[in-house]
Every structure is written in structure tokens, then in C-alpha cells.
Amino acid sequence: MPPNRCLVILLCLTLYGLYYEATALGVNWGTMASHPLPPTKVVELLELNNFTKVKLFDADPLVLEALSGSKLGVTIGIPNTMLKSFNSSKKAAQSWVHDNVTRYVSNGGSGVRIEYVAVGDEPFLQRYGEQFHPFVIGAATNIQTALLKASLESKVKVVVPCSFDSFLSESGLPSKGHFRTDLNKTMIELLTFLTKHNSPFFVTISPFLSLYQNKNISLDFSLFKDTAKSRNDSHRTYGNSFDLSYDTLVTALSMLGFSRIGIVIAQIGWPTDGSANATSANAETFTKGLMEHLHSKSGTPLRPKDPPIETYILSLLDEDQRSIAAGSFERHWGLFTFDGQAKYRVDFGQGSKTLVNAQNVEYLPSKWCVVNNNKDLSNASASALNACSAADCTALSPGGSCSNISWPGNISYAFNSYYQQHDQSADSCDFGGLGLITTVDPSVDKCRFPVELRTSYSHCLHKAFLLRTMTLLVAAAILVS
Ligand SMILES: *[C@@H]1O[C@H](CO)[C@@H](O)[C@H](O)[C@H]1NC(C)=O
Ligand SMILES: *[C@@H]1O[C@H](CO)[C@@H](O)[C@H](O)[C@H]1NC(C)=O
Ligand SMILES: *[C@@H]1O[C@H](CO)[C@@H](O)[C@H](O)[C@H]1NC(C)=O
Ligand SMILES: *[C@@H]1O[C@H](CO)[C@@H](O)[C@H](O)[C@H]1NC(C)=O
Ligand SMILES: *[C@@H]1O[C@H](CO)[C@@H](O)[C@H](O)[C@H]1NC(C)=O
Ligand SMILES: *[C@@H]1O[C@H](CO)[C@@H](O)[C@H](O)[C@H]1NC(C)=O
Ligand SMILES: *[C@@H]1O[C@H](CO)[C@@H](O)[C@H](O)[C@H]1NC(C)=O
Ligand SMILES: *[C@@H]1O[C@H](CO)[C@@H](O)[C@H](O)[C@H]1NC(C)=O
Ligand SMILES: *[C@@H]1O[C@H](CO)[C@@H](O)[C@H](O)[C@H]1NC(C)=O
Ligand SMILES: *[C@@H]1O[C@H](CO)[C@@H](O)[C@H](O)[C@H]1NC(C)=O
After folding, report:
1. Is pLDDT above 60 for 304?
2. Is 47 labeled as catalytic in the residue annotation?
3. Which of 66, 272, 359, 398 is deepest in the core (most CB within 10 A)?
4. Which residues form the signal peptide (predicted)?
5. What would the pLDDT profile of 139-190 be if each residue is shown by its tens digit?
6. How far is CA 218 from the centre of its chain?
7. Is 322 in the same domain as 427?
8. Are residues 284 and 414 in the same domain?
């Protein structure tokens, strides 16, 4: 091969590398599902789709074992409920690091590449009030000290994922951005802590929630559409909601004197069900727009040519047990449905123009539970409401994919959801004699009646739970006697 052609190829490869390494792309993997895909299958899914980073919300041993030996960079999480004990006890922080970090990292080549420990899961969310907020800095400090003791401080960084509502601008103008005033003091402490340890600022950016909360923003502006009316902030022009939020944050950081701190987008995505505007078509447009923006490396008006260090998509999979305190869309953030099937096409710039589905997924039999139309249905609605309090009926919410199916189709939807969640056991389709098991798929148009996964994993959890309950019962019996 002539040397100049070699040079051209080398140059192309280098440029290719630079282009795609602009912002490392990761994905959030939550496990709040009644029938989660087995962790080994999820790791396979991540690898098939060439993701290089994954962010967890806890440190589930089965998940970490599945990640052992993979090349994925991992963020593990400390749930908010643990923050209080880690603030008050250095020892508790040390044993958590020992049991959930050291054990997996120091396993040589077969270990887990843990890059970050996320202290809390958006502990500053406004609706939590003061529940977790006072413990965050103390807990982060004690976890940092524990990592230092374990000689892991250069490998593993301590971060705190901040919610989309920890910063704001009343006028909607980025140049007037600031942190929520109740967080002033904590934010200065957090930013000082992060800077000292050379750790980035983890934050959620959510154009969907800005739209949902009706912040004077149009759908087109949220979806990166060229046709959207741009917004001016003195001499700066904003063409999309993402840039507007990002620069509102940049101003808030600058006001406290941390204008240069590195930013990691810990969560960004668009849900596909459970609310108006939450559709696969919108999610596809949003994700495509986001990817083009990140790959262009253009940055934002306040940080030109300086895109986020890393970006984690919310989320990998739908989760039917996620809290819906913020809205019914919360269970539908996945790029993939609960069973690992891609909802839309998206080019993450990692080789293929489409996502690859999970392989060899095992389902329960093709059976559904519906309402028996031959019965007196005057009390059926009460049964359905009852079912929905345990099962997932978010698709029935206004704007959801099943919001238009008429009564008693919606009762059937509720019954089926309950039945699938209970592994299709016959007694979970009773409903006082109103339920009927069928092998005919009751799905209509966009309203899909799911069949749940067959998963030994959830049975394991179930067994562990039973075992723990039994142990407690035995212990109680011994105490009583
Ligand atoms: C956090 O821990 C410190 C040290 O033990 C303690 O002084 C402080 O009161 C704790 N904070 C809260 C809010 O309990
Ligand atoms: C992590 O470590 C703590 C302390 O040893 C332990 O209580 C906890 O169960 C471990 N696992 C997870 C998932 O946090
Ligand atoms: C927070 O900071 C803002 C702007 O610097 C200031 O106006 C406000 O009084 C501060 N609030 C508190 C509680 O310190
Ligand atoms: C949906 O988007 C429109 C703008 O196109 C907005 O007016 C409306 O409030 C949004 N609804 C929800 C529930 O987000
Ligand atoms: C709403 O947005 C428009 C631009 O789209 C802007 O001119 C107007 O000032 C905004 N109003 C508020 C209250 O933010
Ligand atoms: C924003 O500023 C540009 C010039 O920088 C101008 O052409 C445009 O009309 C302005 N848009 C609005 C909505 O004021
Ligand atoms: C992953 O990378 C491989 C090798 O570069 C490529 O062949 C494949 O198409 C990529 N897959 C996806 C989903 O991007
Ligand atoms: C409906 O519920 C009421 C109150 O529980 C009960 O009295 C009535 O018999 C029920 N009707 C049917 C048809 O089951
Ligand atoms: C439900 O029906 C209304 C009115 O026919 C329509 O505008 C809306 O798009 C439908 N929603 C869904 C989720 O199919
Ligand atoms: C089903 O639809 C009926 C009539 O629109 C409504 O009254 C009832 O609340 C719905 N039930 C559920 C579980 O969505």
C-alpha cells in the first residue's frame, strides 16, 4: 500500500475516533420492574448496542456480577434512604464501600470497571423537601474518605446527581439562571467538594419535564426542530429547549464561582406513554436531535465547543414499578420496552443506524385476563381500580396509548396487568368471578396488552424475600418463646 494512502486511512481513523469520542454515551439501567430482564441478558443488550457506560441506581449484587469482566464503565448508586446513616457514621460508609465497591473493583480483569459512586438519587428533588438534603454532603464526604482508605480514590469518583428542578430561571432567560434558593449553601459545599476531588457535576436536563410543567415552551422547541421559533437572551439566540436549560445551569454555576466545572448529563430522555406528548414518534425526534447536537460538538451559547463530558440516556428499559409521583410517563422512559425490544430507530453513531433487540427473551404463555362480558359488570370498575393500585395502568392515563379504549376494554386492561404481574396465576384473574382467561390477544391498535416475562431472576428475588421473611418469623418466634 502506498504510504500516502496509509496516512489518509490513519487520519480518517483518528478523525473518526475524535468525532465519536466527543461525549461518551451511556444509559441509565433501572431495575424497578415486576419482571426484570435477567441481568446477563441486559449486559448482552448493552454490549450489542455498543454502549460504553452504564449508570445504576443501586449496587445490586446480581447486576454487578453480570457486569463483571465487561468493558462497560459503571456508575453505582446509593439510594436516598441510606444517606442519613452514611452522614452520621464513617463506619457505615466504610462497610458500604468495602461490600459494594472494593469487592468488585479489585477482582483484576474479571472485576467491574466502577467509575463513579452516585451519592443519592436526585436527593434535591423539590418534592422531597428536606427529607434527604441535609445528609448529602456528609454522606459524600464519608464515602470519599472510605474510598481513600481503600486506595480507590483515583479510580472511583464521588458524585451527586442533581435534579432538573435544582436550578431555574423565573423569566425563562438562561442569563438569569440560579440554584433554588433553599439549596444555596448546600450547592456551594457540593461544588467545593467536587472541585477539590476533580469530580464532575452530575445533573438531569429534561426538556420533556419543562414542556410538561408548561414552562412557556413549544413542542417543536423541545424536539430540536429547525422550524421552532428561537428565543433571544440579549445577544444570544437559543434554538432549542436543551440549550436553554443547559445554559440556565451554566449561569447558576457561574454565579457561585464555578463557571468551569465539568458537567455530566446524568439523565436525559423522552418518555413514550402515559401522557400527552409522550409518544415513540416524539421520542425518536428528540433523541435524533440530541445525538446530532452532541456529535456536532457545538456546545451551547455559554459554553461553545464545550459539550458535556458524558451523557446518560434515560433510560434503557421501561420499568412497571417505578414511582409515578411525578406522572404516569415515569414508567415509560425506555429506549426499549420492558422486554428489551427497541421502540424506535436511533443512530447513536456507534456503528449501526438502528438499535439491536434483546435476544432469546422468554415470555410466559400467550394468555391474557379480560373481563367476562356475560357477568353483571356494575362493580367491575371498583375491581379495576383495585387492580391498578398494585399493577401498572399508566397506559390508561389521559394521553396514554390505551386512553381511548372504551369501557369495559379499560377494565380488561387493568385485569390483565394484574394477572401478568402475578405470573398468570389463575386466582389473580378471579376478581369476584368477573375475570376470564383467554388465549386471544385483546390488544387494539396502539393499545398493547402485554404478556410478562418468564424470569427466574424475579423468582430468585422472591425467594430471597421469602427467606428473609421466614428468618424474621423464626427469630420472632424464638424471641417470643
Ligand atoms: C451529619 O453527621 C454529622 C456528624 O456525625 C452530625 O454532626 C450532623 O448533625 C449530621 N447531620 C444531620 C442533618 O443529622
Ligand atoms: C452494600 O453494603 C452494605 C453495607 O455492608 C449492605 O448493607 C448492603 O446490603 C450492600 N448492598 C447494597 C445493594 O447496597
Ligand atoms: C441565595 O442566593 C441568592 C442569589 O445569590 C440570594 O438572593 C438569596 O438570598 C440566597 N438565599 C439564601 C437562603 O441564602
Ligand atoms: C403537550 O405539548 C403542548 C405543546 O405542543 C403543550 O401545550 C401541552 O401542555 C403539553 N401537554 C403535556 C401534558 O405535556
Ligand atoms: C414566553 O416565550 C416567548 C417566546 O417564545 C417570550 O417572548 C415570552 O417573554 C415568554 N414569556 C414568559 C412569561 O416567559
Ligand atoms: C433574535 O435576534 C435575531 C438577531 O440576532 C433577530 O434576527 C431575531 O428576529 C430575534 N428574535 C426574536 C424573537 O426577537
Ligand atoms: C457495534 O459495533 C460493531 C463493530 O464496530 C458494528 O459492527 C455494529 O454494527 C455496532 N452495533 C450497533 C448497534 O451500533
Ligand atoms: C356490588 O357491590 C355492592 C357493595 O359491595 C354489593 O352490595 C352488590 O351486591 C355488588 N353487586 C354485584 C352485582 O356484585
Ligand atoms: C384519542 O382520541 C382522540 C380523539 O379522537 C385523538 O385526538 C387522540 O389522538 C387519541 N389518542 C390516542 C393515544 O390514540
Ligand atoms: C374505564 O372507563 C370508564 C368510562 O370512561 C371510566 O369511568 C373508568 O374510570 C375507567 N376505568 C379505568 C380503570 O380506567
Report:
1. yes
2. no
3. 272
4. 1-24
5. 999 999 999 999 999 999 999 999 999 999 999 999 999 999 999 999 999 9
6. 24
7. no
8. no
- Residue 456 binned pLDDT confidence (cut-offs 50, 70, 90): low
Considering only 48-52, 102-106, 115-119, 320-324, which range has the smallest mean pLDDT? 102-106
Q: Are 278 and 208 in contact (CB under 8 A)?
A: yes
Cell of 8: 489518509
Q: Would you say residue 82 lies in a domain?
A: yes
Summarize the confidence of residues 46-64 as an average pLDDT: 97
Query: Measuring CA to CA, how many Å separate 422 from each of 102, 397, 419, 427, 458?
Result: 37, 22, 5, 9, 11
Q: What is the pLDDT of residues 193-202, one digit of tens each?
A: 999 999 999 9
Residues 201-224 have a mean pLDDT of 95
CATH code of residue 208: 3.20.20.80
137 CA from centroid of ligand 1 (Å): 10
For residues 245 and 388, what is the distance between their CA atoms, to the nearest angstrom? 35
Measured at the alpha carbon of residue 254, what is the angle toward residues 252 and 259, in degrees to the nearest 5?
125
Q: Say what the pLDDT of residue 108 is.
A: 67
Separation of CA 136 and ligand 1 centre (Å)? 10
In this structure, the residues whose C-beta lies within 6 A of any atom of ligand 8 are 376, 378-379
Q: How far is the CA of 428 from the centre of ligand 4 (A)?
A: 37
Among residues 44, 115, 122, 330, the one annotated as catalytic is 122
Cα-based distances in Å from 454 to 85, 222, 360: 37, 38, 12
Determine, yes or no, domain membership for 15: no
User: What is the maximum span of the chain, computed from C-alpha positions, in angstroms?
Assistant: 88
Q: Do residues 281 and 204 both lie within one domain?
A: yes
- Asked if residue 183 and residue 92 are part of one domain, the reply reads yes
pTM of the model: 0.90
Domain count of the fold of the chain: 2
Read off φ and ψ for residue 305, nearest 5 degrees: 55, 25
For residue 26, what are the β-bridge partners? 53, 312
CA distance 442 to 433: 19
Model confidence at 437, pLDDT cuts 50, 70, 90, reads very high
275 found inside a domain: yes
Helix (H) or strand (E) holding 217: none
H or E element at residue 134: none
For a mutational test of ligand 3's pocket, the pick from 133, 180, 184, 189, i.e. the residue with the most ligand atoms closer than 8 A to its C-beta, is 184
Q: What is the pLDDT of residue 472?
A: 45
User: Is 401 near ligand 10, meaning CB less than 6 Å away?
Assistant: no
Do 415 and 431 contact (CB within 8 A), yes or no?
yes
Nearest protein Cα to ligand 7, atom 2: 351
Same structural domain for residues 229 and 299? yes
- Residue-number span of the structural domain to which 311 is assigned: 24-342
Residue 403 beta carbon below 6 angstroms from any ligand 9 atom: yes
Question: pLDDT above 70 covers what percent of the chain?
Answer: 89
Tell whether 51 and 87 lie within a shared domain: yes
